[in-house]
Write a structure and sequence with these properties.
The complex is a heterodimer. By secondary structure, chain A is of the alpha+beta class. Chain A is 25% helix and 32% strand. In chain A, strands 6-7-8-3-9-10 form a six-stranded mixed β-sheet, sandwiched between helices. Chain B has a single domain, classed as MetI-like fold (Orthogonal Bundle), CATH 1.10.3720.10. Chain B is 72% helix and 2% strand. Classes of the chains: A alpha+beta, B mainly alpha.
Chain lengths: 340, 293
């Protein structure tokens, strides 16, 4: 059990700086998801916490210890890798017991701890098997088991679900969350999947290009994105971005500034009855909901999310868009949120 | 799934394998057959006629003290060559695997010795260790150690082992390095997080995962030590002093072409053939079973 504190973390490879000063405080028992597109530095940040990458500047604290100079094994952490990184020549039991054997835990305790983890993860029938005899989901569980038997202060997850198929991913996502709640261990979880981030996180860190764009609870980040990047990255379909202000009584936007509105905050009404009119290009009926794509007279592309049972507007027809002006967010030319 | 090519012409497949079969026949089956045939005869001193003696050559061989000692010499020699060249190569490969800057330069330099022919490797080491003019022999003399492998059997053995092992290190290095690079980095990182120190990781993760490579090299190195080291021994010691470096393959040559006892030489070839066959089977049957994961 421990808090984690990141203080102005930077990382450079030669002259190229890839992480530009990240600050975060993670409370004991919290599940923090670091989310961002590939190449944004989220895995590098996690590997710095693990001690697998050196820290160019800044400090990382786990509990009240600065761990910058400590080896991975001295940091009291456990990590689950994207490709699971199981030891291929060892049985499932030995994979889970490896860290305990190194820590010179008494044999009887090793057996009881591994068996308990195996019971929790439903791996009991497979303890004698080698990793190559297991399915992807089972390997994933072994990797989890290897992490939990050591009872570390911190769990680190590096895209642990991205090698699983969609159905298994949803199931394992729930299991990971339940397990983390049950064990109450502080966890850092890296993913590029915003749905995974939203569903798992107590709080999330949205990263882009080596910068933490926003730190906050999922719904708070969703409702109040601090930057245009966050607004576009979190939420599916992403927020609509318009380069012409449609708010009543507003003048033209500053050069480069935009406004954003979420697809579900728009209702279709009769032409002229809404804030603005738009021409429907086509509809995507998804069952529970329908996405209506179209373009405004000013040339801004928009997506509107309507209930799946609403009658679909015909392609190429003109409809009005009813938008609560309070739902519209403004962003300046640098992408920062400007509240008006 | 098995991929099979079906030939419409009956003779084409035979024609296509013919060159390989021909080479195998001319350079393996024929000489091997000749050796078996000749091992049953002894020629007269002038080589004009031969006399059939059945298994007489073999009977004489195994009754011969020098031949039995040559077995022991071969065993010592091949174990030393295999162990020293493999362990040294593994050590270099582990270091080269950790190097980030200029790793390709190290790799190229370490692979060079493999391009040196055995006889030339032997002469190189002979120059360095020549008791009268060799630089290393001189250095050893400066620190009070007298080096003369022409007189001291132990020193002679050490020298041929060093020269043979040195030549093979490159080959072993190359395979070990490839083997090391094939081990997923994340597995080693997982072990590091699990608390294993570098040496612990090496012995519990890296070494076991390298075992298929190690096993392959073990077979190759033993066969190398048995046969390909002829050039090294011939240039450095000619099997001496007092047969202390006469390994089996060198004795085949010495008895046959120097001693002109072709019958005995042929018999020794047959013994060697059987020995290597048995050794290889043993290695594959018993050791290979333990290297799968």
């Amino acid at each position: 059990m421990a808090e984690i504190k990141l203080e102005a973390i930077r990382k450079s490879y030669g002259r190229t700086e890839v992480i530009h000063g990240i600050d975060a405080e993670i409370a004991d028992g919290e599940l923090i998801v670091i989310v961002g597109p590939s190449g944004c530095g989220k895995s590098t940040l996690l590997r710095m916490v693990a001690g697998l990458e050196t820290i160019t500047s800044g400090n990382i604290y786990i509990g009240d210890r600065a761990v910058n100079k400590l080896e991975p094994r001295e940091r009291d952490i456990a990590m689950v890798f994207q490709n699971y990184a199981l030891y291929p020549h060892m049985s499932v039991f030995d994979n889970m017991a490896y860290g305990l054997k190194i820590a010179r835990v008494p044999k009887s305790e090793i057996v009881s701890r591994v068996n308990e983890a195996a019971r929790m993860l439903e791996l009991e029938p497979y303890l004698d098997r080698k990793p190559r005899q297991l399915s992807g989901g089972q390997r994933q569980r072994v990797a989890m088991g290897r992490a939990i038997v050591r009872k570390p202060a911190v769990f680190l997850f590096d895209e642990p679900l991205s090698n699983l198929d969609a159905k298994l991913r949803v199931q394992m996502r729930l299991e990971i969350k339940a397990l983390q709640r049950k064990l109450g261990v502080t966890a850092l979880y890296v993913t590029h999947d915003q749905v995974e981030a939203m569903t798992l996180a107590d709080r999330m860190i949205v990263m882009n290009d080596g910068v933490a764009e926003q730190v906050g609870a999922p719904l708070e980040v969703y409702a109040n994105p601090a930057t245009l990047f966050v607004a576009g990255f979190i939420g599916s379909p992403p927020m609509n971005v318009l380069s012409h202000d449609i708010r009543p009584g507003s003048g033209p936007l500053d050069p480069g500034a935009v406004i954003g509105v979420r697809p579900e905050h728009i209702d279709l009404v009769a032409p002229g009855a809404g804030l603005i009119d738009f021409d429907v290009a086509f509809c995507e009926p998804l069952g529970a909901e329908t996405l209506v794509h179209g373009v405004t007279a000013a040339g801004d592309q928009l997506v509107v999310r309507i209930d799946g049972e609403t009658r679909l507007p015909a392609d190429n027809s003109r409809v009005g868009l009813k938008i609560d002006p309070k739902r519209i967010m403004g962003f300046d030319a640098s992408g920062r949120r400007v509240d008006t | 799934m098995e991929k099979r090519v079906v030939f419409s012409n009956r003779w084409l497949p035979y024609l296509l394998v013919a060159p390989q079969l021909l080479v195998t026949f001319v350079f393996f089956f024929w000489p091997a057959g000749q050796a078996i045939y000749q091992s049953a005869f002894i020629p007269d001193p002038f080589g004009l006629k031969t006399q059939f003696v059945g298994l007489g050559n073999f009977e004489y061989l195994f009754g011969n003290r020098y031949y039995r000692e040559s077995f022991l010499t071969t065993a010592v020699f091949s174990v030393l060559v295999t162990v020293s060249s493999m362990s040294f190569a593994l050590w270099l490969a582990v270091l080269a695997d950790r190097v980030i800057k200029g790793s390709s330069a190290y790799r190229t330099l370490l692979i060079w010795p493999y391009a040196v022919a055995p006889a030339i490797a032997g002469v190189l080491w002979l120059f360095m260790f020549n008791p009268f003019t060799g630089i290393i022999a001189w250095m050893l003399f400066q620190v009070g150690y007298v080096w003369n492998h022409n007189l001291d059997g132990g020193q002679a053995m050490a020298l041929v082992v060093a020269a043979s092992a040195w030549k093979q290190i490159s080959y072993n290095f190359l395979f070990f390095l490839a083997g090391l690079q094939a081990i997923p980095k994340s597995v080693i990182e997982a072990a590091a997080i699990d608390g294993a120190s570098f040496w612990r990781r090496f012995w519990t993760i890296i070494f076991p995962l390298l075992s298929p490579t190690t096993f392959f090299l073990l077979v190759v190195n033993i066969i190398y030590a048995f046969f390909d080291t002829f050039g090294v021994i011939h240039t450095i010691t000619q099997g001496g002093p007092q047969q202390s470096t006469t390994i089996l393959v060198y004795k085949v040559f010495a008895d046959g072409f120097v001693g002109q006892d072709l019958g005995s030489s042929a018999a020794q070839s047959v013994v060697l053939l059987v020995l290597v066959g048995v050794l290889t089977v043993v290695q594959f049957r018993f050791i290979e079973r333990r290297v799968h994961y």
